[in-house]
Specification:
Blueprint lengths: L1 E4 L5 H12 L3 E6 L10 E4 L5 H14 L3 E4 L14 H29 L2 E6 L3 H4 L5 H21 L4 E8 L5 H9 L4 H6 L9 H11 L11 E4 L8
Parallel strand pairs: 1-2, 1-4, 2-3, 4-5, 5-6, 6-7
Helix pairs in contact: 1-8, 2-3, 3-5
């Protein structure tokens, strides 16, 4: 299968790409800098928060007839509501919600033609539960969950599945840097997680592996919380 992973240069995206390459798939990646993704079979250097970047990746999608889209690229903003600017709102909404929908729109014609497709959105537990001082982030990730349900219904007859994986705290550069932006220490955060640990990127990659498999063809429209128990409380 031809698989496109956005934000494939590090963290969750890189873990997903590496596992699927091991499985023998043709994995293509996107990132803002070439040196971090030049080892992929094919790649697209673009900024998915810009109009030019979206146009570039849409053309890449059309040229390569993508079978599986993994919308992983995103950004976290920790900010009290009174400090939110229109520029911040516009940026994170475009990157976390508008761009994934644009890319889904671009991959669907080929998927319909083949009567096969897999679309996986990487959401967040913050879109399920909400997170104080991260309302923009929570809102965009909640939007992905809503879009997933609607698109799963729209595309079901074409053998196209659409699902969202909602990680909790993940042991990545982004996960650790977001701790620095928050009001809590890593130990305090871990103490609030039922399993007392961060999720490993390879766990999310493993879930992606399952969702694109034939065994998961009946799984669609789902919002899957992979969060070490965070979503069920403490």
């Amino acid at each position: 299968m031809k698989i496109l992973v956005t934000g494939a240069s590090k963290g969750i995206g890189k873990a997903i790409a590496e596992l699927l390459i091991e499985d023998g798939h043709n994995v293509y990646g996107t990132a803002r800098t070439e040196n971090l993704i030049k080892d992929y079979e094919k790649y697209c250097v673009c900024d998915l928060a810009t109009h030019a970047g979206i146009e570039k990746i849409i053309e890449f999608i059309k040229e390569n007839e993508i079978d599986v889209l993994i919308n992983n690229a995103g950004e976290y903003i920790y900010s009290p509501i009174q400090d939110i600017t229109y520029e911040k709102l516009e940026h994170i909404t475009k990157l976390n919600l508008e761009t994934p929908l644009c890319l889904i729109s671009a991959v669907v014609p080929n998927m319909k033609k083949k009567i096969f497709g897999r679309i996986i959105n990487i959401g967040s537990i913050s879109g399920v539960m909400g997170e104080a001082n991260a309302s923009l982030y929570s809102a965009t990730k909640a939007g992905l969950i809503g879009a997933t349900k609607a698109l799963a219904l729209e595309l079901a007859e074409y053998n196209i599945t659409v699902n969202t994986i909602n990680p909790g705290w993940v042991d990545t550069e982004l996960g650790n840097s977001s701790i620095e932006d928050s009001d809590f220490t890593k130990d305090e955060i871990i103490d609030c997680i039922p399993q007392k640990r961060f999720v490993a990127p390879k766990e999310i990659a493993g879930m992606v592996r399952y969702l694109i498999s034939e065994d998961a063809k009946g799984v669609t429209g789902q919002s899957i919380n992979l969060c070490a128990g965070l979503s069920v409380g403490y």
